[in-house]
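Form 7-S
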Amino acid sequence: MPELRKDPIVNRWVIISSERGKRPKDFSTPEKKTKYKSCPFCEGNEQLTPPEIMAHRKNSPDSPGWTLRVVPNKYPALTDEGGIEQETEGLYDKMNGIGTHEVVIESPDHNTELELLPQTQIVSSLEAFRERVLALKQNNRFKYILIFKNQGEPAGASLEHTHTQLIALPIVPEVVSEEIAGCKKHYDKKEHCIYCDLITQELKDGRRIVCQNEHFITLVPFAPRFPFEMWILPRIHSARFEECETSLLDALASLFKESLLRMRTVLNSPPYNYVFHTAPVNGNHYNYYHWHIEIMPKLTKMAGFEQGTGFYINPTVPEEDAKILREAQIKDK
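Output:
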């Protein structure tokens, strides 16, 4: 029988439609494309991107010989020009599109993906994410910095070469504001972080745990919006990813890689998105907000019911998803 489950943080309802009973093999995934010569993210094509912001390399900028590059997005969603100007037209508010849009190219190899990189290279990518967030936070026009990946065309990627994007925004996204409000409401009642309480409960229950190490945990949430959705959370309370100590990045890279590999094995290399949820630039959210990474395979589509209600329909049972992911025999760890 289907269930209605409510996310305890943002009070979002999800329909777990177990009667649809989909298994990993029931989801089709597109074939990987082949390399093409004009890819601007490939080594040797550095002239096809804007000048790099930073890179891990031993030679001169914007030339071959790098292991990671950060460049401005050639077609940015927002641009870092001018000041913030807000206007009101009756009921309507608008402001100019101030922000920054950057791309972290995680490898010069066109035919690899993040989860296939050596763990040390994933650590380098996390270090680059952290360094760029810390740099962008110095600009007082930016209120929130989003780190996200679109892997595969169905997940929104316009280029198949592995990369992650950072966008600095002049406003805090509503999704983040809702999370913060839910976290603060729980903290005001319990004087505990809701994510810390969630981790304690999930560790005791065990059914939705995918993998874990000393410092981080990966789980399938109680009310997942999507089949095989996973969250990675630090086991010690922390509000901001960019404050993650260097000594912990290796543990994060290890679990990040393992989680993606488990998803890759179970779902045959699906398209996916991941998003870093971290506290806004300003405000004291330390006591009640808990940063985390949400990994979402792109296996279903939103249709009229979802658009009309704001509910999500998930055709898989989260406890079964976690068991399948947990028991997957991954080849490369």
